[in-house]
Every structure is written in C-alpha cells, then in structure tokens.
Predict the 3D structure of the following.
Amino acid sequence: MPNATFHSVATSVAGWSRRMFLTASATSLAVPLFARTSHAEAMDPQTARAKDPRDPANLALTVNGRKHQLALDARTTLLDALRERLGLTGAKKGCDHGQCGACTVLIDGRRVLSCLTLALVAEGRAVTTIEGLAKPDGTLHPMQQAFIDQDAFQCGYCTPGQILSAVSCVEEGHAANDAEIREYMSGNLCRCAAYPNIVAAIKQAKHSMREG
Amino acid sequence: MRPFTYERVDSATAAIAAFGAGAVGAASERQYLAGGTTLIDLMKLDVMRPQTVIDINALDRTALGRVETNDQGLRLGALAHMSEVADHPVIKRDYPMIAQSLELAASPQIRNMATLGGNVLQRTRCPYFRDVSYAECNKRIPGSGCAALDGFNRSHAVLGVSDACIATYPGDFGQALIALDAMVELRGRNGDRKLPFGALHRPPGGSPEIETALLPGEIITGFAIAAAPWLRRSLYLKIRDRQSYEFALASAAIALDMGENQIVQEVRIALGGVASVPWRARSAERALQGRRLNEQAARAAADTAFADANPHEHNLFKVGLGKRTLVRALLQAATMEL
C-alpha cells in the first residue's frame, strides 16, 4: 500500500501496484512549485517579463483514475507525457504521426491516438492506458487474456495499442464478424503480421466481455 | 515542433476574439485546433508553424457538436466527430453516401478524434508538401515551384490542376458535401454567413497557398444538407492501394433519383482522389439526365467527366481508374435495393 507522500499527489485511487507506486512517487517530484496557472497570459506577473511560449504550463491529467499535476511545454503530446513524465510506457511510439496505432489510448472511453493529442487537450478528460485495463487485484481484462490465449502477438510492440483498440472495437459494436473486425482494427498495424490471431482474440473476448 | 502559445476557449465568440486579425493562408500565425489529426501531424513535420494554437474542442458541447435530422434535411455541427456521423442510424439509412464517405476514411481512432469541420480542411498528402526538405512547393513557399510536376506524381490530381500545383484534395466527406449541394455555415468577426460547399475550396490556379474562401479567423460552425429524393439511393465508392485506412486513388459519390425503366430523373456526381479540390462532375450529370442508366450511358458520362483531364508522368492511370470507378458506382447505385 502507498505511503502518505503518495496521497498528497494522487486522488481517486482505484488500484495499486508496485509500478504505479513508483510512477506516482516520481510524479510527485515533478510537480512544479513555480509554474503559473494560465497558459494565455501575455505577461508573467511574478517575473514581469514577456511570456515565452516555451514556459511550462500547469495542467492536471487524469490517467487510469488518478490525477497527476504536471508542468509541461505546450508542445508535449499526451504520448510523451504518459511515457516520459508519468512512466506509463505501455503506450508505444511507433510512427509518431498517427499512421500505426501503437500509441492508442482511450479518452473518455473512446479510442484515440495519443501521439496526435496534445497533453493540454487531454486535460479534464479521463485517459485510460493499457496499465489501467486490468482489475485492481491483477485479474486481466478479458481482451488481455484473449491475446495471451490466442497467441495474438510476437514482438509485442503494437500489442498495448491493439488491445485498447480491440476493447473499443467490441464496445462500439463493430466486431460482428471477421471482416468487420479487420476493417475496424485497420488503424493498428502489426509488423509481425499477427492479424489472424488478433482477430481470433477479439472473437474470444467479445463473448467474455458480454458475460463480464 | 516549434514553440507556440496554447489557448483554450469555450465559445465560438471567444475563439474568434482569440484569433484576432491573423494572416490568411498557409503561413497563418494562428490556428484553431480541433481533432488535431492534420495540424499536430504537420506541426511535427514543420510544415505548419503556428505561433498561437486556439483549442476549440470545448465547443463540442454546444450546437457545434450536434447532429440534427428532420424532414427538411440534415444539419451537422462542425465539431461532431467523423465516427458519430458515420455510425448515426438515420444518416446510415437516409444519407448512405455521407455515412460511407466517413466510414471509409482514415482509421477508427482518427475518426474518433477528427471533426467534420477539420476534415473538410485537411491538407493535401502530396509528399513534396509534407516534406520540408524539398525546396519547391508553391503551397508551402509561394513562388518556389512545384517538385511534383517532374517528380513522382502517381498520387497527384488530374482534374483542376495548374502549372503551379497538382496536389490532390485528399478528403472523402467533402465529395459527399459537394455532390449534395451542402451549405457550409461560417462565423467570423463580421457575423454569420453561408456558402455553398462548392465555393469553400479554391482550385490552385496561380496561388495554391490559398486553399479556401475562409476569411482570417472565420470558423466553420456546421453543414446543412436539404432533403431530396435522390438521397436514399446514394453511395460512396472508394478505390485505393489497400483495402482500408488509405486515401483514395479514385472515388465516386453518387446520388440518384431513378424513374420508370431506369430513366435518370436526377443524378449528383462527385469525384475524389483525382482532383485538386472537392470535384463535382456536372458534365457527367448532364450526360445522364433523362437517359436510361445502363453501362453504355455510364461509360459515356465517365468519358465526359474526364474529358479535361491533365495527367502527368505517373498518374495517367487515374484517368482510366477514375472512369471505371464512376461507371461501377453508377451501376451500383442503379441496382441498390431501397
């Protein structure tokens, strides 16, 4: 269980793991005491100098049910904030241009590309990454289990994005048959070409997600 | 990516005020940010270099994010996401061309992010535009020339091109809007106005850096499509190098009102993947008006549609492909069961 330091930076705690604890501890060190709250002001009232667009902006990101205070350059994508600042390295950087799907996360329950989303744009919205998919007791999400059962990956690099996209594919009601699954998973590329097994995993998980 | 100032607004009025009196054209110092699937991509590539980015995503909870259907027609808020409209049951049933043009575009993730207003304003995929290591691109650097004219121009346009630019308009939804005579609703510093969708995009001519008729700071608030007897017999056919998640090599948007004996009462035709802007094929429509729609008539109409084609070294195939795409789409529309 976390210590008191953790509670000072994290709210709405859903579940715990050693990794999450380490992540949150690192985050608490990153909370800036100097950054301002407004991104738009032209003049910094504290230093009385013209605002530099490179100055960090304060924002709160809610990831996997936990709120993180960050100070980020406005250019920071959600993907870089997750990986480089929050230590959530499940979302992968593949192409970094929205063409491969390796960075797929859920925002307010809908699958999106974190490489084309500014972290500032995700403020106030609920972000879910692969790290937030399993139950607090460690029970895997049916889609995670199905990927293991169906051997739906080889190198694994695209897998976090595939799994989040697959969860959405089922929840959107676009997993009626193989052809529909393939069409609605076309935004996630797999260089190992594990596609037949990914389709099989989605068909397996579709039933257990309905029951669960 | 270059540094920029980020501003978040919660109303169209605030957005327009934040934009102020920015410059027009591709070099604009200020940009609205909605889904970001074009803008963030091109900022990473250093093609777009805004100094101020105005985030308008919060406006999706206003009328700008709504889809309304009634007997008079359809109104699509500009901040509705592509996926919402593609999955909308009434649009799928009564406006299949619109739903298909969105469903066949991009990927599910991108359709969840991209808004309709941003979609119609997406920039060309011309590799010489997207890669700043090429010094010649009249869209990026006016007057610098066009590297595509003598370059690898397989993906480029054959209709509506000029000596200054042969970049293809990459969108699908725009073809549906121009085929259906949609109106685009705009809001700017001088209030609201409406434009026929066909007047929104400008063919390249001598100034390909100016792509639309939007005034500085003007924001698209929505699209309106009037009810019409040809909407239910409509479709969008898209031909591409791979089966999904790819831009069109050629596409056809068809809406058809057919009377007895397959006689064409009214037809609306737009062509994608082959032109510099959303492309209405009015000469092909006239060629079919009052005729019996069979393969021969469809071929004649397709020949008319591409009569003024201006292909380059690697994209001559688009003339034949575009004609075959149009013929197939017309015959498919004629045999749709309603």
The domain at 5-58 of chain B is CATH 3.30.43 (Uridine Diphospho-n-acetylenolpyruvylglucosamine Reductase; domain 2). Confidence is low (pLDDT under 50) at residues 23-27 of chain B.
